[in-house]
């Protein structure tokens, strides 16, 4: 059962995405020619005006946490629409950036919506993961800068769309694996490592958890690398792979200590049967004493 804020997020996301219908309506009718000079007002101007009006509407209708949820969902809906418009209208060298924006919007919105359905008691306005960390924001900005630099100095590289298609497939795999992990674990899944075991907390070992001990991390790892392959950012492909690997290595080590404290022998047996799924990461391993 989806939570109230989950429903609010759907309204916000669809409101942002609806700019596409306005754009299509004006593009395929005579209204634009009658009332607007296409040489003066283009798709960007329409997008800015629509975004401003939608933000005012969201601000007037909502308050408090509901406003934070709806505003972020609106932003992601607008981002999704912007990515699609870039993919449709922009020159070939800009299309990978449009695909990247779409992938980012889908990931962050589906993250919130999945928690809204599977574990609504932990849902907050931060569940979109947009403000994940300062490092996450810096990494994103760095990837945009690399795209702009390559686009300026070696624009033809951004037209090798076969590379981007592989990145899209990798992102689809990572996204599907992560969301499958959330929907399989349901109320056992949280964005933060838990310090205390809840009464309802159980060890999940079926579904994608029978493939990997940490399928949500495996999915996120390959998704993050895929975003840079989409943009054909050779430097950030390597940098993201190394940074993500280091982050998940430390995170998994710490998390497995808590899981061993929660589930003891059951988790040790689970470790022996199922691997982590990320290269050269072992987690926190307890060595059994030989009898």
Question: Roughly what fraction of the amino acids lie in strands?
Answer: under 5%
What percent of the residues sit in helical stretches (DSSP H or I)? 55-70%
Overall pLDDT score:
92
Low-confidence stretches: none
Give keywords.
291 residues; 0% strand; 11 helices; 68% helix; mainly alpha
Summed up, what is this model?
By secondary structure, the protein is mostly helical. The chain has eleven helices and no strands.
Structure overview:
The protein has helices at residues 4-17, 19-27, 31-35, 43-61, 64-89, 95-118, 134-153, 161-185, 215-230, 234-263, 265-273. The longest helix is centred in the last third of the chain and has 30 residues, at 234-263. It is built from eleven helices and no strands. Helix 4 (43-61) packs antiparallel against helix 5. With 291 residues, the chain is mainly α.
Q: Which secondary structure elements does this structure contain, and how are they paired or packed?
A:
Layout: H1 4-17, H2 19-27, H3 31-35, H4 43-61, H5 64-89, H6 95-118, H7 134-153, H8 161-185, H9 215-230, H10 234-263, H11 265-273
Helix pairs in contact: 1-5, 1-6, 4-5, 5-6, 6-8, 8-9, 9-10, 10-11
